[in-house]
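Bit of a strange request maybe. I'm writing a small parser for structure token strings and I need a real example to test against, not something I typed by hand. Could someone generate the tokens for this chain?
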Amino acid sequence: MRHCLIGCGNMGSRKSEGDDGLSISTHAKAIHFLKDVDEFVCIDNVLDLAEEAADKWGADDYNDEPLAGFDFYTIAVPADKHLSVVRDILSHTTPKIIVLEKPCGFSFYDCKKIIRLCEQSGTALIVSYQRRFDKILRYFSDIRQEITIECLDDFEHLCHAYDMESWYEGKITLKVVNKTKNSMAFNVYVDGFRVPRSLDHSLYDFYRYTLDGHSELLCCGSDIIHTHYVNEYGSN
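Reply from user aminoacidic:
Good idea to test on real output. This should exercise your parser:
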């Protein structure tokens, strides 16, 4: 698998990984730990950022322009650039998978156009707002326990929580709470009891489940477009 990361800023490579050094909070770090990746290249129009990411995460090369011929592209640039980057990639190559950092696009039009371009090329399009692979949720939903997700009232986290609620339809209750000093992004309660858990490796698990071919990770257009609106306008 040849993997190209486009965008080496905050979510791409530079976001804090936590004091323990074990957290996986950036795309570059998650890709670094994937055993399926034979070649890994970092791209950023600020060449110093691409070089920094490549050095930090052991990439094979870096550049300031997207390169053709990769199986898997991760795009972690500002949302208003998503459409132009996807269009540029698909005009030169046909990858198996494109992962977009959330939201899918800057506008409703951009989202629809990105989806159409990927459908036309036969490329799987995935947006990294999903938590469908979360091991705690999968386990307790399978045994039909009553699950409540307590989520912070902000766009960054609501899109993840909305996806969990809608995917596990009828099994999960979503409760939105105000942020306090010690708030966590998500708390999960099973039959009223809080479950100790960690999302520290969520990006790695996201890629692992994607590469393992779990079809539930391959979003349909309505998933992606609705998530854009959750980000932009809130859950109402």
